Amino acid sequence: MSLLELKDISKIYGELKALDNVSIHVDKGEWVAIMGPSGSGKSTMMNIIGCMDKPSKGQVFLDGVDISKESSRKLTEIRRDKIGLIFQQFHMVNYLTAVENIMVSQYYHSLPDEEEALEALGRVGLRDRAKHLPSQLSGGEQQRVCVARALINHPELILADEPTGNLDEANENIVLDLFRQLHREGTTLIVVTHDPEVAEAAQRTIVLEHGRVAREIINENFQE
Amino acid sequence: MNTKRKMFLKMVTASLLRRRSRMLIALLSIAVGATILSGLVTIYYDVPRQMGAQFRNYGANMILVPASGASMTTESASEALKEIPPDNLIGASPYRYVNVEMTSRQRTFIAAGTDFEQVMSTSPYFVVEGEWPRNDREILVGKETAELVGVKINSVMELSFRNEETKKRNRINFTVSGLLDTGGEEESYLFMTMKAMEDLTGITDTLDVMEMSVSAAEDELNSYAEAISAANPDISARLVKRVTKSEASVLSKLQALVLIVTLVVLALTMICVCTTMMAVVSERRREIGLRKALGASDQSIRAEFLGEGMFLGLLGGLLGTALGFAFAQFVSVNVFESSISFQPLLLPLTVVVSVVVSALSCMLPIKNAIAVDPALVLKGE
Predict the structure, then answer these.
(1) What band does B33 get if pLDDT is binned at 50, 70 and 90?
(2) For residue B252, which of A23, A65, B281, B321 sits 20 to 30 Å off, Cα-Cα?
(3) Which DSSP state fits B72?
(4) Which domain holds residue A75?
């Protein structure tokens, strides 16, 4: 059953077509990687899937509902309720502790619950770092906090933009293991990446080139 | 307190406390504004009292004279004084004027009988070389008269007065205790006690004028004057317009100046806080973008920045109230030479104004914060 479907979407900036008539779909519980060189339209697609931008043409269905014409206020609500975001540059509120950063996400979604936030930190192996500020955490630890933050509201879709781009190999493996765990639990994952190893961890890879879908690769060696 | 409100407070306070340097500038701006506001408002309300006291140095601002065809006695004048609250009455000097003759020079001068203790209160500008009279046989001689007749301190002069009713001339020797310097017409007079005047003239209990120094604004003085005239038909109470008008004029100008300075300072505070908050928003574009990406609505962003601004306003207002009182006290002691008491109402007033000014200063920065596009910020632009 399809969770996300992009139907003939284009994003045009003046003369430039960042996305050109792209159609993809992602099933519920699926793990999909999106690859492509710089300027291929990955970020534009991520912004549209993440409800941070709207296509110039085409339709975006999320959970069966066309969100392509929704107001930015409605898109904020959808993003808050259905999508968990993970970024390459971690992005934490630098004056809040690890647990408070997770609670911020709860605050915007529903109600902050410190115990639940601590459990989420425990899940990424950082419960003992709960009271640390971002500046007191390593890059890998910060990204794990971001994974916990993305999970805290039980989103239907985790959207990760180059989640391992700034991590060393050890931390990259930790994050990928967390993704595997989430996938086993039925969470839908879309991971935008440059890294073939990260893409190979997914079930399917969509390759973008010049704003179009160049090809799709099914990972025959995918391991749960 | 529910967890959502708790988290809101945690975010607002953490933002201020863990990012001290920038917020300290905003806090100081508000505190300086609140200090000047609190100080100037204290002075604004205290100026009439302070200036009133200063103006009392320029002499009486109200006089009582006998109504047309009537006479004024010590008793009727004392009765009239009851219309003025005792706390407002700084002094009341009775005067009786007669022409007396200086026997040795065979010249006539105006002599005034009065109460010297009261004169010291109503006419602080009287400068006496020597001593004020200590008994009924000592007099003050105006400098001009003293030069004219060649008397000095401790000189003895015989004064005489012919009572037309008794057809008898009284003569009394007086010792000059001091010479009076006022720069005015008083320098041509002789001043003695009311008792000495009665001994010399044989006329008792008659007053020509009662000079009063009253601590009150012009409107209040008018109402006292009307009350005195209404309650005492034999007495006419009048304001010394030269003093009351200039006092009212100076006061209103001074208060207008204080008000304008306060408004200018508040406007400058707003500009300073607004500029600081704009810089804060600019510095925190990524954070704002992140919050929006996490699902923060425009309303949430508005509430958070407004909360920070109002919290700063609260702290700045509390700080400013204390510093403002110290500032007003300093001004009062150094300019008016008297201390002031703390007005409790000033605390809520300063805090509320500081919070409102801070909140208004945040409007433009909040507009900029709301305009931050999460997609652009998160790409690192």
Answers:
(1) confident
(2) B321
(3) B
(4) 26-55+68-218
Residue B217 · residue B51 · CB < 8 Å:
no
pLDDT per residue as tens digits for the range A18-54: 999 999 999 999 999 999 988 899 989 999 999 999 9
**Chain B contact for A121 (CB, 8 A cutoff):** no
Chain B 258-287, CB below 8 Å of chain A: which residues? 286-287
Q: A131 and chain B: CB distance < 8 Å anywhere?
A: no
* pTM for the full predicted model: 0.71
Pairwise CB contact (< 8 Å): A108 & B298: no
* CA-atom Rg of chain B in angstroms: 34
Between A52 and B54, whose confidence is greater? A52
Q: Quick check: A136 contacting B, CB < 8 Å? A: no
Burial level of A38, CB count in 10 A (0-12/13-18/19+)? exposed
The pLDDT of residue B380 is above 60: no
Strand B62-66, strand A83-86: pairing = unpaired
What's the CA gap between B92 and B101, in Å, rounded? 28
Alpha carbons A26 and B278: distance in angstroms, whole number: 42
Copy the structure tokens of residue B317: 């207002």
Neighbours of B185 (CB within 10 A): 10
- Token pair of B133, please? 């009279």
Count of C-beta atoms within a 10 Å radius of residue B380: 11
Complex ipTM value: 0.91
Closest chain A residue to B16 measured between Cα atoms? A95
Inform me whether the pLDDT recorded for A97 exceeds 90: yes
pLDDT tens digits, residue range A59-74? 999 998 999 989 989 9
Query: Which H/E stretch holds residue B287?
Result: helix B285-293
Report the CATH number that the domain containing residue A192 is assigned in CATH.
Answer: 3.40.50.300
Residue linked to tokens 């001339």: B169
Sheet with A65-66, edge to edge strand ranges: A16-27, A2-13, A57-62, A65-66
- Among the partner residues A47, A53, A108, nearest to B300 by beta-carbon distance: A108
The tens digit of pLDDT for each residue in B275-324 reads 988 988 998 898 999 999 999 999 999 999 999 999 999 999 999 999 98
b/e B8-30 (16+ beta carbons within 10 angstroms → b): bebbbebbbeebeebbebbbbbb
Question: Quick check: B381 pLDDT over 50?
Answer: no
CB contact under 8 A, B287 and A94: yes
Q: Extract the runs of DSSP E, i.e. beta strands, from A56-203.
A: 57-62, 65-66, 83-86, 157-161, 188-193
- B291 contacts chain A (CB < 8 A): yes
Per-residue pLDDT reduced to its tens digit, B237-283: 988 877 777 777 877 888 888 888 888 988 998 998 899 889 889 98
CA neighbours closer than 13 Å in the CB half-sphere of residue B220: 14
B110/B191 Cα distance (integer angstroms): 9
C-alpha distances (whole Å) from B116 to each of B4, B176, B307 are 75, 14, 64
Kindly list the residues from chain B whose CB atom is less than 8 angstroms away from the CB atom of residue A13: none
Residues B357, B317: Cα–Cα separation, whole Å = 10
Q: In a 10 Å sphere around its CB, with 0-12 CB exposed, 13-18 middle and 19+ buried, how is residue A116 labelled?
A: middle
